Every structure is written in C-alpha cells, then in structure tokens.
Amino acid sequence: MDNRVDTLESISKQVVNCLLCDLAKSRINAVPGNGDIKSKVVFVGEAPGKNEDETGVPFVGSAGKILEKALREAGFDRKEVYITNVVKCRPPNNRIPNEFEIETCTSAHLKVELQVLSPKIVCILGATALKSLLGLGHMTLYRGKIITRPPYRYFVTYHPAATIYNNKLKETFDSDIKRLYSLIKGENKTLNDFA
Ligand code: URA
C-alpha cells in the first residue's frame, strides 16, 4: 500500500490538532486538504470559511459550489482531484490570513502536503495563494499563466469567491479550469511541458 496515504493521514492529524497560531482558538474544526492523493493537480485556496469550519472539509460553501461546478463542466470529478488551502483554520469573520498565520501554516502543513503529493501542477486559486506560494501580487498579471518554480509548476486563476458577483470573472474562471483540464489530460500542444 502506498505509504503516502499514511503520511497524508498523519499530516491531516497534525492539522486537526495544530495549535501553532491563534486561529486554533476561534476555529470549530481545522480543515485538512482532501481528495485523491494520486491527482495530477492540487488546488490551493486561501482559508476555510464558515461552512468549512463547521464541517472540517475544504470548499463546501458557496465558493466550493462554484469550484465544483467549474470542475465538473471542465471534465474533472471533484473526487479525483486534491483540494487544500494555504491556511487550514478559518480566520475570524473570514478576514484574510495574516503573514504570521500564512508563514506558520504553510511551513508546518502545506509545504509538506505538496512534497508528499508531488503534483504535476499546483492550481493557485486567488491572490492569497498567489502571494503565499509564489510571493507575487497582481493577480491580473499572472492569471491564466503557467509559472515554473521547481519543483512545481503552477497555474494561476481567480479565487472562485471572487467570481460570485462578477459574470466576466466567472466566465474567465470557468475557461481557466477547462484549460487546466486540457493541459493535464494531454489534449493540448503545450502538454509536452507536463510529460
Ligand atoms: N475559500 C477558500 O479559500 N477555501 C475554502 O476551503 C473555502 C472557501
């Protein structure tokens, strides 16, 4: 049996029991990543919201519904991808996680998670993940781009929540996820990059 399963389970346990920052005091549940550990793509969002805090599962609220629909329309099954967050506990009132929370949580959890998953591509969902993973601002400059920073390749798109009241962003987000699908499934010329 794949011992990555054990390692990911132990990462999840560490997340659930984590007391490394003050978000542990206000959370109901910590929210470990979830999905298929064999997935070629790992989606990384910002932090859990209310629904995720209540259930302990990432992207199950309104942003999750948008993501799931975009995944389905592109050809992905949610169960065959892996979804996680930069920060694993809900910041009070859904504020953006602060630098200490991001640094502490990514060092303790996300970096290890990515090492174990070793995906072909990391899909960055939104500005917080872009800043946290690549140190880059200006989502509009990088959206739709593939950025190679060994040992990973990253694909940058909007956070699904950013598209809720903006149809134009929603269309772009949906088409980004479709493009990601074709990149991963090898139906596109640029695919050689992913061999
Ligand atoms: N937004 C996120 O960034 N992550 C979630 O899990 C839910 C909403």
Q: What percentage of the residues does DSSP assign to strands (E)?
A: 5-15%
Radius of gyration: 16 Å
Q: Compounds present? A: uracil
Q: Output mean pLDDT.
A: 94
Count of helical regions: 8
Helicity, as a percent range:
40-55%
Q: Could you give the order of strands across the largest sheet?
A: 1-3-2-4-6-5
The low-confidence parts are 189-195
Q: What can be said about the biggest beta sheet?
A: 6 strands, mixed
Number of strands: 6
Order of helices and strands: HHEEHHEHEHHEEH
In one word, what is the shape?
globular
Write the layout of secondary structure elements.
Layout: H1 3-16, H2 23-26, E1 34-35, E2 41-45, H3 50-55, H4 62-74, E3 82-85, H5 99-117, E4 121-125, H6 127-134, H7 139-142, E5 146-149, E6 152-157, H8 167-184
Parallel strand pairs: 2-3, 2-4, 4-6
Antiparallel strand pairs: 1-3, 5-6
Helix pairs in contact: 1-5, 4-8
Brief sketch in words of this structure:
It is built from eight helices and six strands; from the N terminus they run ααββααβαβααββα. The protein is α/β, with parallel strands linked by helices and 195 residues long.
Characterize the structure shown.
By secondary structure, the chain is α/β, with parallel strands linked by helices. It is 44% helix and 13% strand. It contains eight helices and six strands, in the order H-H-E-E-H-H-E-H-E-H-H-E-E-H. The chain has helices at residues 3-16, 23-26, 50-55, 62-74, 99-117, 127-134, 139-142, 167-184; strands at 34-35, 41-45, 82-85, 121-125, 146-149, 152-157. Strands 1-3-2-4-6-5 form a six-stranded mixed sheet, sandwiched between helices. Helix 4 (62-74) crosses helix 8 (167-184). The radius of gyration is 16 Å and the shape is globular. The two termini are 25 Å apart. Residues 189-195 have low confidence and may be disordered.
